Amino acid sequence: MKRTQQELLSSEQLLQLATLGRTLAQSRIARKMLQAEVAVRANLSRNTVSRIENGDAGIAIGQILRYLDVIRPGATLADVLTRKDNVVDALESANRPRRARPLSKQELEDYDF
Predict the structure, then answer these.
(1) Where is this chain compositionally biased, Basic and acidic residues type (predicted)?
(2) Which H or E run includes 83?
(3) How many CB atoms are closer than 10 A to CB 6?
């Protein structure tokens, strides 16, 4: 009976793959790249790019590395796992909620240097 890669991995390993896929997808989205564009540049199918981002266990490591080279040139797999992506951080800070009310006169005086 044939078994899938998903069945052969522990739940911890599946969680690691899902985290890697989510991290790679965030990097791609922060750079405003479409899955189809990444697929063409990495010589992958769009379906394979989707599977990488969804943490599919059946994807070859070489395909993940080609994907990574397109969205974060020069970065290693270790960089993705250990370091925050500056582009993702910038996008998150730009999307943070901002002050909704104007400052009062007293608050303006307190901030006046």
Answers:
(1) 104-113
(2) none
(3) 13
Closest CA relative to residue 64, chosen from 74, 53, 73: 53
Question: Which residues of the chain register pLDDT less than 70?
Answer: 1-3, 5-6, 99-100, 112-113
The Cα–Cα gap between 95 and 79 comes to: 24
Closest C-alpha among 78, 99, 87 to residue 107: 99
DSSP state of 74: T
Q: How far apart are CA 81 and CA 20, in angstroms?
A: 7
Q: Which domains does the chain show, CATH number per domain? A: 10-97 (1.10.260.40)
pLDDT of res. 101: 77
What was the pLDDT predicted at 2?
A: 58
pTM of the model: 0.73
